[in-house]
Amino acid sequence: MRKVLLTCLSAMLLFSGCKDMFEPAIENNLELENAYTNATYAQGLLLNGYTRIPTNSWSFNDVATDDAVTNNINSGFLKMATGQWTSMNNPVDQWRNSRSAIQYLNQFFAVSDSVKWAVDPTISRMFNDRMKGEAYGLRALYMFYLLQHHGGQGINGELLGVPLLLQHETVNSDFNQPRATFDACLQQLYADLVKAEELLPLDYSDSSPVPAKYAGINADDYHRVFGASFIGRMTARIAKGIRVKAALLAASPAFNKGDVTKWTNAANYAAEVINLRGGLTNLTDKDLVWYNATGGIDGLGAGVNPSEILWRGDVATNNSLERDHFPPTLNGSGRLNPSQNLVDAFPMANGYPISDLTNSGYNALAPYDNRDPRLKLYVLVNGSTAGTSNTVINTTVNSTTNDGLNKVETSTRTGYYLKKLLRQDVNLNPSSTTTQKHYNPHIRYTEIYLAYAEAANEAWGPQGTGGHAFSAYNVIKAIRTRAGVGVSNGDPYLESIKNDKDAMRKLIRNERRLELCFEGFRFWDLRRWNANLNETAKGVSISNGNYSIIDVENRVYQSHMIYGPIPYSETLKYNNLIQNNGWQ
């Protein structure tokens, strides 16, 4: 993929600087008609869809939930979570980005069939097929983000999505289009994914057989178009993963009025992806640290995925995450501070919640002992070591370092620092600064497993399989075993609830909270579940061996905020654009 991106860099730069989602001024840019004879220009339209993917960077909107706070007083998420979220001030807006991406993709569709992609007409046809498949998959992805960020109940009481944009718009188009229903948008998303799967291979490979639809084409020519050089671009497997994400959103309480079929669909879609990976047999503890050397990042070949990753961005060598999130003594800014709420959500190593004082063995005077191993893997707690020098991090109120609670503006506000996603082999010392490899996942398999568990539990109960080889219970058992939870005692807590749909739902949601923490899921999960958005973010004040729970930051969300707003400026311009209920 990197070769192709470099080849088309000039085309991408042409679009990345545009200030308008429609055709730029003629004197400054090539006209769309140039795409017919300029394949690089045409492909630039498609590649714009890749450059806008939201997960190309971390949002860390977790700091707007009960999982974390930030010490950055200028954070838009902090302001949003504390009462300043409006349709004019929306840090999680996707309206412009996703609709612009769809506009570029629609421009690509408008010219693709007329572009001369290669001298040989048969190879040109294959290139056209593949890139149209990519565009369909990307258009579906951006519809998912629009539904997640802006779908909701309109002031007319109807569950709405966004205006359907299926054609290239020009300055002469009628932009005053009404929002389609949520279900109509979902069906269009599914239709695009079907087309993507028809046109794309499951994976790009230099050894895959030539499919029947290209009978008569030799293998070398086929792999020139569908070979390993394009790993990282949209595939049928990725399209299936996008379908899972969309189906889970559509089945969730905020978007579903009790239709069990939607849960069944989500479970079936997830099972298909899981089966393609080999079921539940390939989970390893390396999956938990896909972001560091143990997880194999340093040895990844170009475009190759570790076992945990379904789709990812490119590997980059830097230390920006560590600069933002390392504690002050390691020359970081300590920006994201995990909450006590999240820390308490990690069970004991024996599998029992810490609230079960009879069975868990939790000790309030040694709260981090004998806990779920994921706690110290993902959260830097008091007394842990970090960095290349294994520095002991002291977060107590009387700490002699700036790592202590509220010592300076870069100190923790909760008594905890972020550890997940960070490379501990990065050194930020100004005299010997180092960098390491990082990448951003677009879809992880753990997300798919947890989607299946959630949907299967709702559709068939904890142990129902719907005809598949595994149940919600089986998936959660595998995930907890991988994490090292309940492995020494058979996980009696899980066994005690394996026939209780409500208790299993609570556990599945908690496992999702733990496994996907700090990756931008909690903010959306709470909303699609119609859950409590106003849980006060808490921390811990440690002094002389005493642990006192403290309130750190109140959450100020109103009930209608389970749905995001349509941008106020858009509703002013277009009177057919209905706002979501409760927003101005």
Descriptive tags:
584 residues, mainly alpha, Serine Threonine Protein Phosphatase 5, Tetratricopeptide repeat, two-stranded antiparallel ribbon, 14 strands, 38% helix, disordered N terminus, membrane, TPR-like_helical_dom_sf
Mind explaining what this structure looks like?
Residues 57-215 form the SusD-like N-terminal domain. InterPro entries: SusD-like_N (IPR033985), SusD_RagB_dom (IPR012944), TPR-like_helical_dom_sf (IPR011990). Belongs to the SusD family. By secondary structure, the protein is mainly alpha-helical. The chain has helices spanning 2-7, 9-16, 39-51, 76-84, 95-112, 121-150, 182-199, 219-226, 236-251, 260-277, 320-325, 340-345, 374-378, 445-460, 472-483, 492-497, 501-515, 522-528, 568-573, and strands spanning 68-70, 152-153, 159-160, 309-312, 316-318, 336-338, 379-380, 385-386, 391-392, 417-418, 436-438, 441-444, 537-543, 546-553. It folds into 3 domains: 2-60 and 89-234, Alpha Horseshoe (Serine Threonine Protein Phosphatase 5, Tetratricopeptide repeat); 316-438, no CATH class; 446-556, Serine Threonine Protein Phosphatase 5, Tetratricopeptide repeat. The strands form 7 sheets. A two-stranded antiparallel ribbon has the order 1-6. A two-stranded antiparallel sheet has the order 2-3. The chain has a two-stranded antiparallel ribbon with strand order 4-12. Helix 14 runs antiparallel to helix 15 (472-483). The two termini are 43 Å apart. Mean pLDDT is 94; it is low at 1-30.
